[in-house]
Structure formats: C-alpha cells, structure tokens
Amino acid sequence: MSKKLRIGIIGTGWIADAHIVEYKKMPDIEIVAGADLVPGKAEAFFKKWDVEGVKCYPDHKSMLDAEELDAVSICTYNMTHAECAIYALQKGVNVLLEKPMCVTIEEAVDICRAERESGKIISIGFQPRLDPNMQMIKKIVESGELGKVYYIQTGGGRRRGIPTPFGTTFIDAKTGGIGALGDIGCYSLDMVLNAIGYPKPLTVSGYKSDYFGTRPSTYPTHPEYAKVFGVDDFAAAFIRLEGDIILDFRISWAMNMDTAGDTLILGTEGGLRIPSTECWNGTVGGPMKIYHEVAGEQVETEIPIIKQQGEGLFYDKIRSFLDAIKEGGTAPVPTSQIIYNQAILDGIVKSGKLGREIEITIPEI
Ligand SMILES: NC(=O)c1ccc[n+]([C@@H]2O[C@H](COP(=O)([O-])OP(=O)(O)OC[C@H]3O[C@@H](n4cnc5c(N)ncnc54)[C@H](O)[C@@H]3O)[C@@H](O)[C@H]2O)c1
C-alpha cells in the first residue's frame, strides 16, 4: 500500500466534527496534527473522537512549522481563513479551506497568489455542489434547455436563524467578519454561478443590515450577544455579470418573512424554478420546475428530487480533494471560480457602506 497522506486539522470547533467523522472512514490517511487557539480544545477534540497519537498545537503556525503534512483541513472562523491558508500553502501543504473562502477580496487575491506560487491544491468547502440536485441545475443550464440565461434571482431566507449554538464566533466581527453573507449567502451564489459557468461579476449595488442581530430579545438566553453582534443579518444586491446577465440576490439570517423566495433562472427558451428551503443551508427545497413551450404550448416539466447515494456530501468533498492530491489532479472547487463569489460578497459590503453601486475590480493573480 502506498504511503498514507498525513493530515492536520486547523480549528477544532463545530465544523471540524464533520471533517474528522469522514477522515476516520478513510484508510489511506492518518491524522497526525491538530491546532486550536483555545488552550486544551484540540486535545479534547481528538479525545472525543477517539483518535490517538495526534500532536496538538496552540495555533496554525506552530503546527505547520513543526509538522511534515500532505494536507490540512482549515476549519477556523472566517477571519483566520486567509492567514491559515496562505501559511499552509507557503509551507507546501495542500489545503481544504472551509467556506466562505475568506472575508475580503484582497484576502482572496492573496490566497490565489500563494496558491500559484506553491503549486499546491486548495479547494474551497462548498459541499452542496456535490448534491445531485445541485448538479442537475448545472446540467439543465448546460443542456441548452433554458436558452440564453439573462436573469437570476437567488438567495435564501431564515425567518429566525442567527447561528449562536456554540458561542459568538459567527456574529462577532472579529471572528466572523461577515455574517449571513459568508455563512449562507455564498452557497446561494455558488449554486447559480456554478450552474452558469462562473461568469465574472462586473458591478454590484449592495445593501446589508443588522436589525435583528443587535436586539437583545433575539437571544433569550444570552441577551448580551446583541452587543457582540457586528456583522450582517440581512443583505441584498443587484449584480451585473459578464455575458449580460443580471443577478438579483438576497440573504437572511433573520427577517419578518417566511421565505426570501425561490431561486429563478430565466432563459430565452425556458425558466427554472428551484424551491427554497425554510432554513437555507444550500440544499434544493423540493422538485424543480422548468417553464417552457412545447409545440407552441406553455408547459411545465417537473424535475423530481434525486436521492443522494453513497457516504454523503462531506465525505465526497474531502475524498475529491484527497483524490486530486493523490492523482495530481486539480482542485474540485477551485479558487479561480470562488474568487468571483468572494468578489460579490466583498462588493456587497463595500457598496452597502458607500450607499451606491460599485465596479468590481479583481487584481491580476
Ligand atoms: N461547510 C459547511 O457546511 C459549514 C458548516 C458550518 C461552518 N462552516 C464554516 O466552518 C468555519 C468554522 O465554523 P465553526 O462553526 O466550526 O466555528 P467555531 O468557532 O466553532 O470553530 C472555529 C475554531 O477555529 C479556531 N481557530 C481560529 N483561528 C485559528 C488559528 N489561527 N489556529 C488554530 N485554530 C484557530 C478557534 O479557536 C475555534 O475553536 C466557518 O468559516 C464556517 O463558515 C462550514
């Protein structure tokens, strides 16, 4: 048997659980190192998961300086994604980076430059892409069934769903950096942009607000969280994409409405309706429908929900990354696409602050 891949986990919080569960199923890897800023947290994490012999470190740098690793899972909060990913790439380590890629477009550019200089693989953790229903959206667009796509409405809504189950790292600007935008907005963007081939974003007129996050009554057991809240709990934007495509976007962690609406993809030959979910988490909410004409008649074609097979999306996300390393392949979810996702998130924040439309410019990598 060939040598096992030596894996490190940076950040041992909530989502690291989902990574370690899948790594434990894989006989061709060994988890050799872990790091967390909170003293004792990494040690407790590996103990909880019954993984022995893992060397624990107080931060990503000390781990990457000391260990010879093939790959790391970066499961830290958004604000440290860029520094961890860049340092790992500089050390010649392949990176599976949790979504969102980072917080700002400047960070995204720095990550892409570090990737280019390292020659290593960095894949961004958008596991909903591996859902066969999501893949069906892309297949429908690529089949030409919709004709030329010219307008997309997307986003997701939670009536109340500000994530604070394990503390304040999602809502504190110092750790989360961005709120609903980075938590779930990036999924909606990936769903539609991936389907249409990730065209370049050109301009954005964005808006963001924090009316719910800053209210003590939002957190009945932790009213003090309201003072910590420093990110967006709602955002909306009108984005122009290359290829004369309009993207109408909204995302909500909290609002006085049941849904922010279904995702609609309008094309010259057909329109696709993708039902939203009550609590948007990047999954298709029900059977999709294509609205089109057959023999001059306006008809609808229903696309039934496709059942997922195999080990699940998280397994597939990690496996596809590891297989790319082993086979000398390319990143399953490449930064060359996700930089556009990040540019839109960043554009919404910047445009929202300025109160006007802005042009999106991405420097040469
Ligand atoms: N793909 C998904 O389905 C999914 C789901 C939930 C969260 N996420 C993403 O995962 C990331 C982490 O979320 P979470 O809920 O696990 O957060 P969390 O706050 O529970 O855990 C993050 C951990 O990272 C540690 N950390 C931060 N910087 C570090 C550094 N430089 N070195 C070592 N440790 C460091 C923190 O101490 C903390 O323990 C977020 O970016 C989030 O968007 C993805």
Architecture blueprint of SSEs:
Blueprint: E1 5-10, H1 14-23, E2 29-35, H2 41-48, E3 55-57, H3 60-66, E4 71-74, H4 81-90, E5 94-98, H5 105-118, E6 122-125, H6 132-143, E7 149-157, H7 180-195, E8 201-209, H8 225-228, E9 234-241, E10 245-252, E11 263-267, E12 270-274, E13 288-294, E14 297-303, H9 313-327, H10 335-354, E15 358-359
Parallel strand pairs: 1-2, 1-4, 2-3, 4-5, 5-6, 7-10
Antiparallel strand pairs: 7-11, 8-9, 8-15, 9-10, 11-12, 12-13, 13-14
Helix pairs in contact: 4-5, 5-10, 6-7, 7-10
The structure holds nicotinamide-adenine-dinucleotide.
Nicotinamide-adenine-dinucleotide is lined by residues 10-16, 35-38, 41, 59-60, 75-78, 80, 84, 98-99, 125, 127, 166, 169, 183.
Provide a concise account of the structure shown.
With 365 residues, the protein is α/β, with parallel strands linked by helices.
Report on the architecture of this protein.
- The protein has 365 residues and is of the alpha/beta class.
- It has 2 domains: 5-127 and 312-333, NAD(P)-binding Rossmann-like Domain (Rossmann fold, 3-Layer(aba) Sandwich); 129-308 and 344-359, Dihydrodipicolinate Reductase, domain 2, CATH 3.30.360.
- It has 10 helices and 15 strands.
- The chain has helices spanning 14-23, 41-48, 60-66, 81-90, 105-118, 132-143, 180-195, 225-228, 313-327, 335-354, and strands spanning 5-10, 29-35, 55-57, 71-74, 94-98, 122-125, 149-157, 201-209, 234-241, 245-252, 263-267, 270-274, 288-294, 297-303, 358-359.
- The strands form 2 sheets. Strands 14-13-12-11-7-10-9-8-15 form a 9-stranded mixed sheet, covered by helices on one side.
- Helix 4 packs parallel to helix 5.
- The longest helix has 20 residues, at 335-354.
- The protein is globular and about 65 Å long.
- The structure holds nicotinamide-adenine-dinucleotide (NAD).
- Nicotinamide-adenine-dinucleotide (NAD) binds at residues 10-16, 35-38, 41, 59-60, 75-78, 80, 84, 98-99, 125, 127, 166, 169, 183.
